[in-house]
Design brief:
There is one protein chain. This protein is α+β, with helices and mostly antiparallel strands and 232 residues long. It folds into 2 domains: 130 residues, Jelly Rolls (Sandwich); 76 residues, Orthogonal Bundle (Arc Repressor Mutant, subunit A). Strand 5 and strand 6 form a beta hairpin. The chain is globular and about 55 Å long. 23% of the residues are buried.
Length: 232
């Protein structure tokens, strides 16, 4: 591949990455091109770590293709899944305002490419384009809401209710289908809702016996009765 073709491919990848992100996709073409000039790309194989807990955190990492799982380890070594990032989603935004280290691990769930912008580069963009700051605040607010909801579920809902709520969330309010695809392995799903893989399997079976869901395959589930699933 010639140097010109390599540059074109790189710019095309950067543009696709930047245009996916809600904090950037409101910018006009000229502004978007300026953001693209600051972006660096990296690729990771399934199972590779983008960063470790304790690593210096000084870049905004945006998923371009693939997916990342963010998790933390307890003192006993038990994993707790924090979040799964899909294309257009990002991590590291808090470190862009303060010197800090990562508290979580970020692992590629499949072949994954990311775009990264350093703290100093993003801070310069925030000064020049304040609308980016507002978009970041909106995203942070949304994440705080999600974290609070998840914390409330751990204290007020049973394992069965947390699993049911997760399935309904996957369905989405504007979905045209009643079939959901589980984006997590059974181990990760168990970690996310605070239980064991064995309990997840047992609870899915119980929900199916109640005719609330129907398992089509190991990863696909048909929501048979959404209303009663929500009010277990």
């Amino acid at each position: 591949m010639t140097e010109m073709n390599q540059k074109h491919t790189c710019n095309t990848s950067h543009k696709g990455c930047v245009s996916l992100v809600p904090i950037f996709n409101h910018l006009d073409t000229e502004q978007m091109n300026e953001v693209m000039e600051t972006v660096q790309s990296q690729s990771f194989k399934k199972g590779e770590l983008v960063y470790h807990a304790g690593d210096k955190s000084d870049v905004l990492t945006i998923v371009n293709k693939g997916s990342l799982r963010l998790y933390r380890l307890s003192e006993s070594g038990k994993e707790q899944l924090v979040r799964v990032l899909r294309p257009g989603e990002f991590t590291g935004e808090l470190a862009l305002f303060n010197e800090k280290v990562h508290e979580n691990y970020a692992e590629a769930m499949e072949a994954t490419s990311v775009c990264q912008i350093t703290r100093s580069q993003l801070q310069a963009l925030l000064v020049k384009y304040p609308s980016i700051s507002l978009k970041i605040l909106q995203e942070l607010s949304s994440r705080v809401d999600q974290t609070e909801q998840q914390a409330a579920r751990f204290t007020t809902e049973s394992t069965e209710q947390r699993l049911a709520s997760y399935l309904v969330e996957l369905l989405g309010s504007d979905s045209q289908s009643d079939i959901v695809t589980l984006p997590l392995t059974k181990k990760d799903l168990a970690s996310y809702i605070g239980t064991t893989p064995e309990t997840v399997s047992r609870k899915l079976k119980e929900l199916e016996e109640l005719n609330l869901i129907k398992r089509i395959s190991s990863s696909k589930i048909k929501i048979v009765d959404e209303d009663n699933l929500l009010f277990l």
